[in-house]
Design a protein that fits this description.
With about 300 residues, the protein is of the alpha+beta class. Helix content is about 30%, strand content about 25%.
């Protein structure tokens, strides 16, 4: 089985509280992006903007085997989210099967191939999406699949934003990003330009100077307003306040998107990718084709 793994954008991101466990509560809206990349309705817009994941029962091995192609996945297997997802799924399935007194029907060994195209260190959730899509494909190989809710519980053990990619629909997120409420926001008909500079922002750097405070706008109401109104309503990514002074190129890219006609522009997650939302393909394509050539990557995407 093959799946095309999309990314997400954060529309608004507020850090509302530092928790006793050292993590932070936040409010954001996750929006899937890259769903149409390379399809007839969204012809090529720069480099591929989806990972390609294939999982098949192994014909020769009784153990799981992994192959990673494309962008380098630079971490040991025990930290690789795809490897961890397979291990976690097998563990949960074995426990469930033992409790029910039934035999697990997941093949003893699976071959997992991931072609990595999505940029890392971008705030687009590419690694989290790979992990969640792995859980989803494995679930399709089982005789008695888990519910979406159960998959979300597993995904949370792999990362705070992993549960979003199980249902993969627009969602308001709170807590550490794990508490999801389906959102009515639809950007159908609009296009986005996503740009990533040669900048890496670590999670530690992103949170270093953050001062938690109540959200300036209730992101559950985003669908009531046009994207052109969001900036005036206070819809913003709070990480921009601390990261833009440290990496001025981020602010430059955001301004470049506005200068090229974006209805709304923002950094996604803790960066370093930024995006602009445009009313239609022609306006987005003009912006896409005029973005600086010095960037690590620029993508034109149907929303």
């Amino acid at each position: 089985m093959i799946s095309f793994v999309n990314a997400k954008l954060n529309i608004g991101l507020y850090i509302t509280r530092r928790r006793p466990d050292g993590y932070h509560d936040l409010e954001t809206l996750f929006y899937p992006v890259g769903l149409y990349d390379g399809t007839p309705v969204a012809p090529e817009g720069g480099a591929p903007f989806c990972d390609i994941l294939e999982i098949t029962p192994s014909e020769t091995a009784a153990a799981d085997r992994f192959m990673f192609l494309g962008r380098k996945v630079d971490c040991p297997p025990e930290k690789n989210l795809v490897c961890r997802a397979v291990s976690l799924f097998r563990s949960e399935l074995a426990e469930e099967s033992a409790g029910a007194g039934v035999f697990s029907r997941l093949p003893e060994g699976v071959d997992v191939t991931l072609i990595k195209n999505l940029p890392d260190g971008a705030g687009l959730g590419g690694g989290s999406a790979d992990a969640s899509f792995t859980l989803r494909l494995l679930n399709e190989l089982t005789a008695k699949p888990f519910s979406a809710g159960r998959l979300e519980e597993m995904a949370l053990r792999l990362g705070a934003d992993c549960p979003f990619f199980i249902r993969n629909r627009p969602a308001f997120a709170s807590g550490v990003g794990d508490l999801l409420e389906e959102s009515s926001l639809s950007l159908a008909g609009r296009w986005a330009v996503v740009a990533k500079p040669h900048v890496y922002v670590s999670t530690r750097e992103a949170f270093a100077n953050i001062s938690p405070r109540p959200a300036s706008f209730d992101l559950r109401r985003l669908g009531e307003f046009a994207p052109s109104e969001w900036r005036g309503l206070g819809v913003a990514n709070q990480f921009e306040e601390t990261l833009f002074p440290l990496h001025p190129v981020l602010a430059d890219i955001k301004q470049a998107l506005y200068d090229r006609g974006a209805e709304y522009a923002s950094m996604s997650g803790s960066g370093a990718a930024l995006y602009g939302i445009f009313p239609d393909e022609p306006s987005a394509r003009v912006a896409f084709e005029s973005m600086p050539s010095t960037l690590e990557g620029v993508w034109l995407l149907k929303l």
